[in-house]
Fold each of these.
Amino acid sequence: MYIKRVQLGFLHAAVAMTLVPINSTLNRVMIKELALSATLVAILASLPYLFSPIQVFIGSFSDQHPILGYRRTPYIAFGLILCVLGVVLTPQAALLIATNFWLGLVVGILTFGAWGMGYNFAAVSYLSLASELSGEKGHSRTISVMFFMMIVGIILTALGLSRLLESYSPGALERAFFVVAMTALFLGVLGLIRLEPRTKDRTESAANLAADVAEKRSGFGSQLRAIFANRQVTLFFIYLVILLVAILGQDILLEPYAAEAFGMSVQETTRITAIWGVCFLLSLVVAGIAEGRVSKRSVAKIGAWGAILAFLLIAGSGILLNLVVFYLGVVLLGLATGLATVSNLSLMLDMTVAGKVGLFIGAWGMANAFSRLIGSVGSGVVRDVTTQISQNQVAGYVIVFVIEAALLIVSLVLLQRISVNVFRKQAGVEPTVVERAAMVNEA
């Protein structure tokens, strides 16, 4: 299983690596160097998440429709290819927008959209496969390995981009993105080789066919309504959206903020992602040590409180114009985001039902993508409106970070009402002896 966890980590890293240049480097170039509206940049960067509802359909469809005997592999491969194409083409679209707005906008919608569709196909599929391969007892370990490798990939990607963009130029930007795309494709291929066992059992195939017929009769909408009839599922979905809007809303603004407030170059702001990533890795070690000793919900709470303090420090650094306070906030944000991400993803995998893994993972994936959409567009709009009103470039960013801290407080209130054991009871799933023992330590 260790090798399969590493392969799943390669897949997670490959898809995440395609996110770094788009949501880290390119957004800064578009806002600062190309002087494009933060709202426009946010809409383009978030365009992929408009497709997020398709994750539920992909998850459910792949549950019942294997291709050549594989339920997840073809969908992961298709998604990865689209992600790679998106990374190669998005910088060209961004540069075109600056010279020919309407043509560039059309190309931008197509290229950012290609990346987004690929992300949706790949993410729900490899998370579903991770849940199936690891089993309930191995969820936390699998998530830790996947995210450890993902963050290593993000750190190396950020450092590589920083080196490749030491002297910024449009040509250097396109070359750097191409290198990242090819590296992601290579890692993705390594991850897919012999990862998923092929379905050969005719009995299983017959069962899948019967389930497929039942699915068509009940309808996809009915299935979706059925899982959200569980109150814990609805609560967890709302909780995830609010939490992720807060944590992910800063993605497109942190580097432009550093450029505006402290005059950092493209190379310097790109390194911020590497600093964040190192801190994320440290938090994974802490989460691994805490596993079995501290409940997942408690770790999630610690992560949320840490992120609240981080956002307040980052906001305060802009008011004080203090670079040390800014870096303290970035470090704490990396540590807190790691704890919150691992604990909540582990909770997410726990809140699935056998036989409907893809459907449930699709619902959680939709929450993730929907949150990125709201967080990114909302952050861009708030930044632009506040900047126009105050005539202060930094003020808009500061307000966004304060709002994100407030949203995290709301998420903590919701987290108090969420319980995996109550979810299982409402879903009609009998807890195991281990799970019954874990109820004592859940709070």
Amino acid sequence: MDLDWNKLFIGDLDFSFALEIVIRTLIMFSMVLLILRLSGKKGVRQLSLFEVAIIIALGSAAGDPMFTKDLAIIPSFIVFVSIILLYRTITFFAMKSEKFENVIEGEPIYVIEEGKFVLGVHKDHTFAKDEFFSEMRQESIEHVGQVKTAILETTGNISFYYYQDDEVGYGLPVLPKPYQKKSKQIKDENIYACTYCGNTEKLQAGNHSCPRCNQTEWVTAINTLRLT
């Protein structure tokens, strides 16, 4: 079957409408930028789940009028105004009520406490361990024992609070090469970290279950200091 390239790329496009598409796109894009500026946010990293939903709604309202001849711009402008009014109303009530804010924005989640992962934290979030380790490495964290507390914020950012150098203990390594040496079989006596919860134990050769989470996979723990 021969592919109709003209139909694929051009279809029934009226070239007299092409300039109108450019103008529509510039107008709608400018409106999206204006609404985002009115929201007061400086960047994507500051956005909560609720605000991401607002942006998706704005994108949906702006997209079709950019290239659909039968859709006028004013109805989309009305949608934009409705969205920003809704946003302002919800943020007003969120400022007045902490419970309402928690429903809309969510709550910060403790991920690490006292150099160990919080048990059951996997039920409260959807980020993968590899993703979290990546965040730690970007903060020059070599192992979990360097971190006193880590909090997953409602914006998706992670706040880290560190031990002083003289308080750093053994911890689960987060660098790829040391972490990949994990095993269920302990071969030599040493200090090991549970790959699931970060608990550290001095173990003899053999098979062991973590007394904190009952998992059986271990990796050699390290206690290096964080370099800043």
Amino acid sequence: MASIASLGLFLLFALLVYAPLVLTNRIVGRGDLLTYFYPYRDYASSVLRSGRLPLWNPYLFMGVPFLANSQAGVLYPLNLLLVGLPVTRAVNLSIAGHAFLAALGSFLLARRLGLGRSAAVLSGLLFGFGGTLTAQAEHLNQLQGLAWLPWLLWLYGRTRRSPGRGGLGAGRIAPAAVVLALQLLAGHTQSAFISLVGLTAWALAEGWDDFRRGAGLRRGPGERLVAVGGIAGLGGLLAAAQVLPTWELSRLSIRAGGLPYREAASFSLRPGLVGLALLPDWSGTLFPEFVAYLGVVGLALAVVGALARPRDGAADRTQGRSWRPVLGLTFLGLFLALGGYNPAYFLLYKLVPGFALFRAPARWLVLYSLGAALLAGRGAESLLRGEGLDRRRWRGLALVALGLALLVGVGERPAAVSLRGWGIAALLALGLLLALDRLLRPPSPRLRPMGVALLLLAVGGELLLASRRLPIHRATAPEALTGLRPAIATLLAHQPASPEPPARFLSLSDIFFDPGDLAEIHAALDPQLPPEAVYDYVIATKQKEVLAPNLPLYFRVPAADGYDGGVLPLRAYVTLERLFLPEEAVSIDGRLRENLDRVPPGRWLSLFNVRYVITDKTGDAWYDDVFYDLQHGARLGEGGVAEAAVGYVPTFPATALGVVYRPAEPVEATRRSAPMVEAVVTFRDGGEVRLPLRAGDGQPAGPDWVARLRWGEARQPTAIRFRASDGLPVLLRGVSLVDERTGAFLSLVLSDRGRYRLIHSGDVKIYENLEVLPRAFWVCRAVSAPDEAAALSQMRAPDFDPRREVVLMGASEPGRGCSEDAPTARVTFVDYEPERVEVLVEAPVSGWLVLTDGWYPGWQARVDGERVTVERANILFRAVAVPAGRHRVTFAYRPGSVLAGFVVSLMGWGGLGGVWWRLRGRKGKCSPGPRSPEAVPPARQEGLFAGSGGAAGPPPSASGSAPGPPRR
């Protein structure tokens, strides 16, 4: 068991590395941690504190499962322990705590491999606080899952019984299965998959050793693979409460049939980045997924450990057969991290289940990091024993150094600051190895504590310095997340009173703008935070202003968009994206904001209950001291569009209408007098003027033209329309009312894709869709579609009107119809909660109630208490048949997969408890059999530095090796 000193050292190091997060109130205000994990953990915690399970998420992707999305980590025990804390404090403590757990697990694994306590502490420091895990602070669930990897390998070693005790002990797989269950509950399924593949490779390497010793296939590789299978099966059983809902969700996800190879191989470690990945990134420019440094000292020790070999036939527990799994793990991690740059990865993608489900092959580097950390401990052990650096090791160090130098020199972005840092670290490593080589050869018990101290100081100091270039040391003020911005406040202020659900919004804005309070931000934060932290605060401020991509969940503002990168969004949602985007621009992760270049057609925004559209001002312009809103615009005279109107005209007396336009094709001089469009302006006094706009009217402004259409005296317009003439097609970019008497102006919103009005203008603009459909509405016509492609085709038809018609996916009854002049129904919300919706419908004739929340198995509906079928409507939404008259319709989310998962998990944990009780009752009744030499722990040592060479000495061997010094 780890000593108190070892635990204290890991805890101290966790505090030093993560000091900005643990010892202050600052947060990582960037990346997925800001825009994904803080919102998810905050929502889960708030719902759990209210006494409910967070089963449904109504704020992203127009409604999706929440608990079933494993990345939310709802059932992960260590997340549940922190539910009562503010989300920023809970996440920060979880990050540091899991680094501590990873270090402790690596320590225990190294001890099982026979390393002494000091060398095992060094291995724990290198893995727990090396680059791979420290850089993953932005990916909370990935860090949580990978922290248990060394624990899985350590506990796997306990599945083997001693010779003469019957081989594999079935009861002994339970601890390792519990660890695997924790990985699955942590929410990053890929981390569990990587761990299982690493465990399988480890088991095969050990089984190969057994086979070579004559154990046979069944007692060698076969028995070890059975143990791995048992761990996987029992671990899945224990985590079934998460696994079954996630499996159900994955069947409806875009990943159901596996990712395209291009997606699966994305974020592969490019060969040109290998040198930068394995060395500390002193420049701080490397993408976090590619960071895998152990430090130059740690890497040198790993090379020394990899080249270790038995001395004169000594049967040393830290050398020989037992280290083949570690060497294999190290190589496997590097081999698979190359992903798309490795031809073998394509074969794995095609042939091995699981490889097609995940992307970012660079994440396999965690296997390299753990294996190299263990090898570094082995290298330190051999130096502390006084074995020194022979010619073979010096040659290996030189080859590795030369290879890394070549990779850095010919690779990508060899930053000068990194080259300087590597040079200094290399000199340090060389000096340290030479010092140990001279200091401890021949070995001197009195000098060993000095050697241990030198190693720990060198390794720990380099890890601390390298970590300062990672995101955790760019921690910024907590207001980067919690502070309210004007755009958010505007949306919250426009939310209706309960029980009416708030309407959705869609953000189209980039973050290429400066916040209006940028000077105030710098004045407040520059004296307190480093420049990088202030920069992250500014970027976070802009992300909040546009509410991207999952921040709507944190502020409880429903969005039509979102981001996941895992089992979400649903495949049906991605299908609906094709209404907005060309096929090549469709993203499987959502993120419409990043792919849309203009406001989508109004009928789709209205159907999706999108009342608000957020855009920026970077495309707007000032001409002749008049501001023009150029976000929307209208294309007339092409594509069948003949008319466009200003959706909302405020009270503003004006004498002219400013127009920014662009002819759709070059205009010949002979055609300049031909009118392109005609502006029809209606006034409050009932009058109307028709003003033609000809090619060449006004003044050129780059590719645009700016014209003034005047009507003389000041009058109050109430409606403005533009009609296409028989002349040239034209793009109307923007219009503004102008009072030429005073120079006052008012920018208007002109669109051929719907009717909008501007309700907020600050750092960004917020438009209100004046034709939005309510969240629930009634239609009297329905058609059936056999699949999503057919439904999409029917919805794209020009005559499809979502206000009067619904497309049902494989409806249980044939479609009905009604006349065009049929009266509408009245729909009133009685209750709207994430897992329960109740509405009153007063319908003149039979029809369908359409609720534009996501359809998903587990949603049940009742009409006046009678169970009815929930149809899948318009590809993604829900609909139920409603007869004529007044009826109460209730939707309730009761997923059978969640119930079944909890039942299976309870049975698994109950059975595990029964096995434990039975084994506990038998304890002491059976005499222990002879113990395997591999199972003998290293000799007990007192204190952190005592006996740093590991075991007290090599055991006697057949060759007559002398026993080591007596135990203290």
